[in-house]
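Hi team, as promised in this morning's meeting, here are the two structures we talked about. I've kept the exact order from the run log so nobody has to guess. The first one is mostly here for context; it's the second one we should focus on when we meet again. Sequence first, then the predicted structure tokens.
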Amino acid sequence: PLFLLNKHTLDVIKEQENIKYIYIDPGHGGKDGGAISNTGIYEKDINLLISYRLKSYLENCGYNVKMTRYGDYDLASHGSKNRKNEDINKRIDLINNQDVILYISIHCNIYTSQMIKGAQTFYKDNEENKMLANIIQNKLKCILKNTTRDSKKITGKYLIDNSQTIGCLVEVGFLSNPEELALLTDKIYQDQLAYCIYLGIIEYLGI
């Protein structure tokens, strides 16, 4: 049957058609646990917890937010013969969507030496990516006051190399450093990390 749409309904439909998203990518998931501390803490779990906090901050600021995963799983299909490749390619497809404003990929680092520590942002060599990564890195340095690292351009990371959307990777700290590991498993510190990234995003977007 035919029906008439009032102006308000038409405006709502138009707004829904033009919705733009910020995409958060919690690294790893499922069988791919990512880095593992010597105490058995998986990177994938910390990545997800920080991502949820970041999602909450952005949504409270009015942004539409999606995540590449919402639980402990990867994005590969059932019975996939190469889960890691399929997973990373699906993440790339999601963040390269034309409705995405920018993306943030969240990871934890690990190193052979327990002395190495500090959160750091990485970006594909592009002025917009560099600006976003620099702003987030400055927030991490100024607020957390426990990293002296600078943002760094990087190649050889498949997701970053193949992303067409503005974005960066945030390595939130080293699971191999005992002090930083204790912080990364603390809910208050996870919230502080998310808040730093959130402030960086909204500053980059001009809020």
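And here is the second protein, the one for discussion:
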Amino acid sequence: MTIKAVFFDAAGTLMRTRVRVGETYARIAANHGKTVSPADLADRFRLCFAAAPRLAFPGAAEETVCALERKWWKDLVCEIFRPWAPFEDFEEYFTELFDYFASYEAWVLYPEALDTLHELKRRGLILDVISNFDSRLIGILAGLGVGPFFEHVFLSSHVGYAKPDAQIFYTALRQHELEPADVLHVGDSDVCDLQGAGQAGLRAVLIDRDSQVKILGPERIDSLRSILRLVDDR
């Protein structure tokens, strides 16, 4: 079956934070009178993010989504700092933090991302993003210079379903009138991307740049450039 489209996850797949999350949380907190180590904040972020409800708001009116996204993140950051309460300047801190990560300058593309997108587009493939992110992602992708490559960006907060729920993948398939076998999905999460897309019937590959044990193959790659081979082989 010929691959007609490639769907991408965003953070951890196409791009990463320019500075580690714990370091940014700690630096901005220090600006607001709260001193916590980057390592402690990184640990709390991982723990709290994993335990947080999915960033999706089924049935929400479109005009309310941005406010719901901001509240979701505020609740998460509040929980992250719970061991160091009280945080008297928290409101101002959160506003600065949220706005910082809305800027494309807080993010950087992986080195091979731009060339890979160029090559996939040259082959005539449909390219989309499917992400458990929020509305800030649209401006980030535009600022990084890759927004025009994608026909659609499907955000869990707007779709109402978050990966690994198959419904977010089905939404993208319906948009293009594609069958699951027409699509290759690429992401960095074993659960959200590899398993989620697979359960929806899509061909899925895991981008794994950091594993100490490189077990590469049909379902695991260490560079986005490997997508070109996978697409050309189909």
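Starting points for discussion:
The chain has a mean pLDDT of 95.
The chain is about 45% helix and 15% strand.
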